[in-house]
Amino acid sequence: MTAGPDREPLDRSFFDRPVLEVAPDLLGRVLVRSTPDGPIELRLTEVEAYAGPADPGSHAYRGRTERNAVMFGPPGHAYVYFTYGMWHCLNLVCGPEGHPSGVLLRAGEVLHGHARAHQRRPKARNDHELAKGPARLATALGVDRRLDGTDVCAGPDAALAILTGHPARPAQVLSGPRTGVGGEGATHPWRFWIDGEPSVSPYRAHTPRRRNSTRRQVGT
């Protein structure tokens, strides 16, 4: 890995802060995924913050489970979950141990390893679509549950690492409601993205699931 100020791995203290500080500060940072066939690097362009027990949208809202246990551990670790029976999503744990919160990595611009990313995302029509959305990002990087709990602060040769990169300027950072979150957390402006970036995913409001039911007629 080439040396330089922008190539320094972020240390644990970066993640040991309130999630609403960490999330926008991740924009412009570089995520490195080391694989047996070579590394893939991408610049983070879109993230979402989830604030644990204080946030109805968080997986940790109702307490610790086998699925979300990593969120209750030390900061600077990857929380990977499987959703809709087909997709993985990658999060980074923030805040002090025992106070679960995390940042969902929603989108990024692939900088190196395009061919490897395209092999995993053959339906991507161009480079901007390789990691445009959290499931696409995880797929392009080859991230699945086997990486749940990975220490992203273990060093540049770890399976996952976050480099200093070039943080987005405050004027470039926009915020708004999180994608697909309903209920009490629907309006929290905890989605952050870099203005004008083509890799940022489209916003979609929460759509309640409809249950098929037969209406009963009650008579006398």
Automatic annotation (TrEMBL):
<dbReference type="InterPro" id="IPR011034">
    <property type="entry name" value="Formyl_transferase-like_C_sf"/>
</dbReference>
<keyword id="KW-0234">DNA repair</keyword>
<dbReference type="GO" id="GO:0003677">
    <property type="term" value="F:DNA binding"/>
</dbReference>
<keyword id="KW-0227">DNA damage</keyword>
<protein>
    <recommendedName>
        <fullName>Putative 3-methyladenine DNA glycosylase</fullName>
        <ecNumber>3.2.2.-</ecNumber>
    </recommendedName>
</protein>
<comment type="similarity">
    <text>Belongs to the DNA glycosylase MPG family.</text>
</comment>
<dbReference type="InterPro" id="IPR036995">
    <property type="entry name" value="MPG_sf"/>
</dbReference>
<dbReference type="GO" id="GO:0006284">
    <property type="term" value="P:base-excision repair"/>
</dbReference>
<dbReference type="Pfam" id="PF02245">
    <property type="entry name" value="Pur_DNA_glyco"/>
</dbReference>
<keyword id="KW-0378">Hydrolase</keyword>
<dbReference type="InterPro" id="IPR003180">
    <property type="entry name" value="MPG"/>
</dbReference>
<dbReference type="GO" id="GO:0003905">
    <property type="term" value="F:alkylbase DNA N-glycosylase activity"/>
</dbReference>
